[in-house]
Fold this protein.
Amino acid sequence: MFPHIPYHPVSFTETESIERSKSFLDYMKRRRSLRFFSDQPVPKEVIENIIMTASTAPSGAHKQPWTFCVVGDPAIKSKIKEAAEDEERESYSGRMSEEWLHDLAPLGTDWHKPFLEIAPWLIVVFKKAYELEGGEKRKCYYVSESVGIACGFLLSAIHNAGLVSLTHTPSPMNFLQKILDRPENERPFLLVPVGYPAEGATVPDLRRKSLEEVSVWW
């Protein structure tokens, strides 16, 4: 059993809470998925802090069932790009339904993924289906939910650092496990290029759903 220690909350007045929540909302509204990256270097320490922020996420039974593999080596990034494009080419040419392709069309995406080589860092998030302790399997709980929450923290931390990212999910992603030589208990969950935006980068002019469309109140 974990020993319990005093919790020291951060307290704000009602007015401060409203102001802070509005300020954070306005800042997060500026977060966008980007496909046009600069090759400008990003300090390793920034990525370390981002990952440790993601690791503050809650998890089932506090198992923290995630591994963040950080790739900066150009040769490994090239291998990942080649394998990802192979899978994406198959998806766009036959795996995806007509409805799926129709929904993607306004975004202007295709199987070409140059950002996987251009972005200075790739963060590959793996989920642990179970733990391995001394060769023995130990159960993890709510793995996908826990890792999904951690990825949300990750994206927020990336944005907070003044960087941009993209949630890339080539399917299937088994090639990432092979290229990065991950153990049998880890499964690729998300591939996130991280860096600065390219000069003149653009994003689709999208509309996010309103409060009324995404919430129900009682």
Q: What stands out?
A: The radius of gyration is 19 Å. The helical segments are 14-28, 44-54, 74-95, 98-104, 115-118, 143-160, 174-179, 211-214. The chain has one domain: 34-197.
